[in-house]
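User: Predict the complex.
Assistant: Input components as received:
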Amino acid sequence: MIQATYPLIFAALLFCVGVYGVLSRRNAVLVLMSVEMMLASVTINLVTFGEIARTADALLTGQVFALFVIAVGAAEVGVGLAIILLLYRNRASVNIDEADLMKY
Amino acid sequence: MVSDYAWLVPVLPATSALLIMAIGRQLPKKGAEIGIVAITAALLLSGAIAVEVFGANVDAAAEAHHGEEGDHGEEEADDHAAAGVQVASLGGDAGLLAAAPGEEPKGENHAFVNEKSVVLTPLGEGYEMEAGIRIDGLTAMMFLLVTFVSLMVQVYSTGYMHGDPRFTYFFTLLSIFTASMLTLVIANNMMMVLVGWELVGVCSFLLIGFWWEGKQNSSAAIKAFLTTRFGDVGLMIGVITLWSMFRTFNIGEILASVEAGTMAGGAELNTGMLTFGLLALFLGAVGKSAQFPLHTWLPDAMAGPTPVSALIHAATMVTAGIFLVARLYPAYQESPVALAVIAVVGTITLFMAGLLALVQDDLKKVLAYSTVSQLGYMVAALAFSYTAGIFHLFTHGFFKALLFLGAGSVIHAVHSNNMSDMGGLKRYMPITFWTFMIGSLALMAIPPLAGFWSKDEVLAGALSAGGYTGYLLAILGALGGLVTAFYMTRVLWLVFAGPFRGHGTPHESGPAMAAPLAILAVPAALIGFINLPFDRFHSSGFAAWTMFDTRYFEGHPAIFNFPLALTASALAIVGLVVGTLLYRRIPEREPMLRMGLFSKVLVNRYYLDHLYTDAITRTAIRDKLGPAMYWVNDRIIDRIVYGAGAFAGRLGRVTYKHFDQRAIDGALNGMAGGAGFMGREIFRKFQSGNVQLYAGGMFLGVFILAVVFATAG
């Protein structure tokens, strides 16, 4: 159990960094990167908890789950980058503060 | 028993009415054939019922007679029960059968009654509304009369109404009319009587106003309807009174209670109340059977097509009142006051209406007044002798139907109702002439035609009963016979003798109209022989056939008063001779109109119509009561109404100003304004469009939830 504490703390820190990045960056690419960071921390958590909850019936559940999350994350990045690209094409800027059309 | 299927008799014409309405127009005879087939079936069934009732009642009468003469031992009493007489009383009249056979022979009643009913709906407190049949001699007699006359009228109408645009509708109405009357006749309870009664009224309204395009016709229909409705109020009061006394609408139970002298709950019979109820019912009969003073609608009802007049006068409408009194006759017997009123009203009617017939130029109106007069005979006769009243009803039905159909044939030929446009028709219309002659002689009560026997029965019954009313009826009835003979002679000469005074060339009616005349002439001549007053148990079947009670039958033996019959016949012949002398050569001026005040009063119909329309409706109601009511309405009721209105208005304004505008509107506006303010000033700030602000909110929310779950868990 002791060994599990470090990856969890690490994942929490990584997550917080990601949150900070999402909330504070103005550049849409950096925001996307921060999101990926949060995703990575969650993946670490999955592997960690998979180890903790490992039984004879479910040896690799956490690892397999992590693989799924990485695959989905790759797809998500593809979509996210496409959005940012379109944003840039339309506005010649990736400043996220300027993309405020969705208001009252 | 055939009479178990008696319900078919009214159902057949009712069904045919529906069929005619549905498919009549498509048929080759425009629906007439359905009506005729249905009524023929009903007639055959009525005949079978009549035979059954006749057999049972004649046996019962003979048995009862026998039992009274001989010593009524146990053995004989058993015979009574075994002879099938008891079978005849199946299903009804437990009260009348209460006396065990043999113990008290005087208390027995073996008259045929077949009563059946189904419960329609419970009325609460254990009472039930039922629909049922009550077949006894009276019903069987009425069945035969109504279906026979209706058949004749329908056959006749195929000729008379030929080419009428509403031919099919006419036959629908004839069928409904007949069905209504049969319902009234078959009813075993007062509610059903009431229903049939009102249906008859509606049908007569529709048929009298059949040619409603003429204003005169539609107002005649309305007059007939309103006048009979006036009487119907009495009928309704009577039915309610009887209900309140006996707590049943069932006629058998009412009669049994009256006979037992008890009311509902075993209380002693309240004779005063019974008299009131019976007189109220009689008011209904006065309206329907056109008795003085409500007779004025009947002559106006001549506006309808002539076959309808025949049906109304002979079978379906005016006989309803007589039927009602006859139906409740055992109850009427208990109330001498009611009987006296009936006698007086009938006697006044018979004499007064007979005189009115003298001055009419309209052929149908002569016949109409003669119907009123004959109805007077029937009503008055009921006060003294049940048999005489309904026997006269029966014979009169045949010869009056014959006379009306004959008159229709004449009218059809000359296209006018007025006798001043007729004359000499004997040459052109021999069948009509001879049948009309037979009908007239029967109406004049010339022996041995039908009218003689029944009218003689009436007069003899009245004379033997005696008393003021009895002598009044006997004397005025005999004099009325003179008047009857006179006006019918006048009609015969004016219509059939002398030169033709109308336009064109009249011709005999076709077979559809001539055949019913010829058929009706037979009973008009011969039907009187079914009740010869000499030997009750062999030849006079009618009294036994229609009896409601063997004791009544026993207690009212046939009377043949030879001097009376001779006097009445002599008076009729005097009328005939005087009429012949006056009208043999068509007089220059109508002698009936040359008798000063007498003629004037008659022409104006005793001023009764003036009394009703001018004095009562116009002067009293329109000029006096109307303004008075207007004043009350204007000054008192309107003030109250206006006051209430103004108060309500003021209350409304106050409410509007203080409550609606301030409280309710204030609350609503406040809520709406509050919501608007929140949106405009506060929540708007959150909707900045800044993605990072949203994300921050989301993280904050998740954080708070995490803290909450962590501390709560």
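Chain B is about 70% helix and 5% strand.
Let me know if you want any component modeled separately.
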